[in-house]
Amino acid sequence: MKDPIGPLSKFPEIVSSGNNEHGPFRRILGHLRKAQSSSKLPNPELWLVHESILLYCQGKSRRANLLNLLGDLCLHSYKVFQFGDVDALNQAVCVYKDALRYAPGHDVYVADLGTSLLMRYERLGRLEDINEAIASFEQFLALVQPNDPNKILGLQKLGISLIWRFKHLGAQSDLNDSVQWFENAIALAPEGHPERAAASDNLGMSLLKRFGACGEMHDLDQAVLWGETAVNLSQDGDTYKLFRLNNLGISLLTCYEQLGNLHDLDQSVMRIEAAAALTSDNDPEKPSRLSNLGNSLLARFQQLEDVNDLHQSIFMKERAIALTQEGNPSLPTFLDNLGNSLYASYEKFGNINDLTNSIIKLEAAIALTPETHTHRAAMLHNLGNYLLARYEALGDQHDIDDAIERKSAAIALTPDGAPDKAAMLNNFGSSVLARFDQFGSIADLNESIRIKEASIVLTPDGHPDKPSRLNNLGNALLARYEQVGDLRDLHEAVKQQEAAVHLIAEHDYSKSAVSALLQDNLGNAFLRRFQRLRDPSDLDRSVLAKEVAVSLTPDGHPKKPSRLTNMGVSLRIRYEELKNIPDLDRSVEQLAAAVALTPESHPDRPSRLDALGSSLFRRYEHLNSLDDLDTAIQNMQSAVTLIPETHPKRPIFLLNLGIPLLNRFQKLHDPEDSVQLICYFTSAACSATGPACIRFQAAQYWAGHAHALHHPSLLHAYGTAIQLLPELAWLGLTISDRHHLLSQAGQVVRDAAAAAISAHKYQMAIEWLDQGRSIIWSQLLNLRSPVEELREKYSTLADELETLSALLDRMSNPSHVSRETMKPPTLQFTAEKAHEIALRRNHILEKIRGLEGFEGFFSPKKISELSQAATKGPIAILNVSQYGCDALILQPEVPDLVIYVPLQQLTMTRVEQLAKQLVTIVGGPGRNDRLGGSREGHLDPDAQFCEILLELWLKIVCPVLDVLKNHSPKPSPERGLAHVWWCPTGPLAFLPIHAAGMYGPDEPFDHLISSYTPSLSALIQSLRSQSSPSKDLQLLAVTQPTAENQDYIPGTKDEVRNIKQQVNGKTSVLWLNEEMATIQNVETGIQESRWVHFACHGVQSASNPTDSALLLAGSSRLTLSDIIKLSLPNADLAFLSACQTATGSQELQDESVHLAAGMMLAGYRGVIGTMWSIRDQDAPQVAADVYSHLFKISPPESTKAAEALHLAVRKLQEKLGANNSFRRWVPFIHFGV
């Protein structure tokens, strides 16, 4: 197989053989002579020659010969002029194809066509060209004889073409075939053969490419070995030796990048430097060698930080560009390489001009690269990295958006099989995650995770980068957990990071720097999971992983202080869990070492000082050493001093400092400590930035200390805490996560109300209680209204408010995982940005409150609005606090009047005792059967029950009724019994206030009708005037006598039969029984019916209240979460004749998290539920009596449901005996109106 420019020497033979040809042929020969002498003809003349040969040349063989010669001249013209004229290349392909039309199967012509197609692919990157080139070389090898000397060249051309196609498509088979063809070429070239050196060089480069794809170190070792063989076989003065020196230098550079051996790097520089030095400036290969030398010098700078290497790298790459003619297809690569070195210079010196120039070089490189070229994707990706860096430096959002756009374009240009696709996806995902970190869009976070998952799918097992990519996915999942609170993300994050660490160990990378990073991140993930689930094994794993991370991090490594800090924090948390003092001593030791290694100006120094102070304070609590306490305070004061005023972490440091000061004040009674701690708590609580939970805790401590000292700021402290509740339960979190955050907030609200009552500010107490208790339901009733209503009318404002709020929270809670993008910002930068965001958020809130209909947005309801809840009758709000127990009464037709009733004989401790005692009698949440029989025990349950109800009567209900008698007209016989709505707080929510009384042996105690409400706001929602129903009254009845793993309860069917008998055709009844009671059918029926009745098993989830459910067909469950999602504008009455439908959560006493409240939230104005398990034989009778009363009038009124239930229960009392059947009749209760 000939070199395409070789046959020019045959030109005289062709000319002499054509001497007798006619005129046109002589003109053809004249053009060819001109082309031979000048090496360049204008394109039109070349096309003219082409056409002339086709028109005038006689004989297929001669025509093919001349066409092939013209192709050689076109290709020679293209190469001599440094690849500037793509038209000449296109014409060469066309001419070679024409030659084959007249001499099909000619091996030389086939090979020449393959060469021209390969060169055009290298220039334009068109897949069809490389496919045709491969087909041509395969045809050539099939045509030539086994001993043909050109076969070695053909094998190598085919191998080179396969490498190019591998770069384009990523098919591993192409790369493996390439290696095989080069090995075959070597086998055909014995020692001393002139092509053995070239084949060795090509095999080395092919093995290097395969190492890059698969990560097998054997391939890299062999690549270096064959590269050295090629150089050793080349004679000094041989032009090709310079090629081989250059290629060997590239392999050695890769070897250094993998193993970190500086000798390999020095050898790389030396080999490429020698090649460049021996190459003249007018040699077309000179620019490539200079650029490659610049790459090796850049790598050595990054290792040794010798700035002379960096300057030389830039100089070499600038020379390469200067020596490259415009139009050279390698020019974009040289510009890209120069951009890399300029970016490194920016990172070293911080000169923004270097960064700007690197972006300019990349943009120029991309502009010169055809859309279809394989290098274009990599350049777009690099440009994205530089734009991201400029965003970090200057904060222009357009840069980060442009960065992501460029990387997205790079991904789109890269097929899934391409070897770089997985790395590009990983980096792209990190960039999108970086934008989430800065701007808080959950869509970016989700997209980042999706992209990283795709990256891992494309990364083969055994690839050296797979552990890092698994770790990066784990980091993104952990970020989403921290944002959204979904435990599945937390578990998956741990799983991915465990897999990453396992792969590191499996492939013996355990001593690498990346192993320390992965172990540190895994330790943080275990710690997060422990903090959520409290599994001690997670805490042990966290400590172990962080110990490994520290041990793998050499002294002097920039990450050593952060890993010491992480280890110290995990040790302190384990001490707090297990009280093992050696853990605490080690924690102090590790954190002190971290502080000592952290420069004064480092942005993490305040955090490390604070962490050290926290561990010293814990040791003071254990050992009572004042030295530890004083040192803790000193470190924490230093942290506060170093942190700027508006930094979002400042409230955390202020709170942490205030707590040890409070302890020192309680021990030494130094009034200066008292003054300071009040100041610190106040500053933290009132900060415009910082996590809401931290500011709330600061307000809580502030209020507690103010209470103890009778400080005048007491109400201010509680008011601040109450105002923080909506942020504490921010809507961006899941409902279950909001419950997790609010588990301790109820006591603060009740204490705040007690403080307001002590100050005779009864209206303030009402407003605070309503805003504080049932905050989750208020959000779903109210914040669903303001935020969704706002979005309907002013979507931009709603989106901006949510984005800014999420940003503030995340800035003060930065991820503890080590991210692979974004430099840590300075303290001042973070402080200024947080302050700016807080001001923008306040401005947005002010703007919203200035809009018509949104005046009270994110503000508590005032008493004038709350008093509307008493439209139907008096409401008694029962507050239970460590500072006192009180009732506050609202009455109809007396707006703004709050009647105060001190419950002087009641204490919070006694209420808690009564609630626990009741649980021992009736059982706690979790039972899901309708009771089938009596309990056995040493004490008479009814006697205990009777005592509880008597105490509730004497200490709560009787004082309230006594006051009501003095403020309300005596009910006439026509009006019947008085109707009171109870709104109990805290542990009172578990006690049957409605059944309180003095029960004698012969008759029931029957003084009033009782209903409940989770909050005043919820009752106001229930009191709304029902819009004209779009459908006539229909009652949905759902029965499920059994469910998976549950006992059979036959009474459910009797229950619905009784209901139908009472309805007696006055309204339609839709009955879904057993297998018909599917989730889909039930939800459809609910939407079509104004009244619903459930007779089935019910279950209360103590661990996750929103999973409480009604059990339907098979294993299906209609959960509280499902009910909340329903929107039912015509919903009216719900009867939940199932177990525990009004049983709340012990941890969320003030959140009324039960099915009955969920039905109110879904839109039902009134709900009948049960406080605990009921008897199967009682439910049908109670239901029949309720509906009998309701259907006495037509149309029936749901507002009579409380009265109907009262009468039905009284009938049950009379049947059973009121004083020996408490557990059977007491659980039936009514909510709403």
TrEMBL record:
The chain positions of domain CHAT read 974-1232
Q: Which residues form the signal peptide?
A: none
Domain of life of the organism encoding this protein? Eukaryota
Q: Which Pfam families match?
A: CHAT
Protein name (Swiss-Prot/TrEMBL): CHAT domain-containing protein
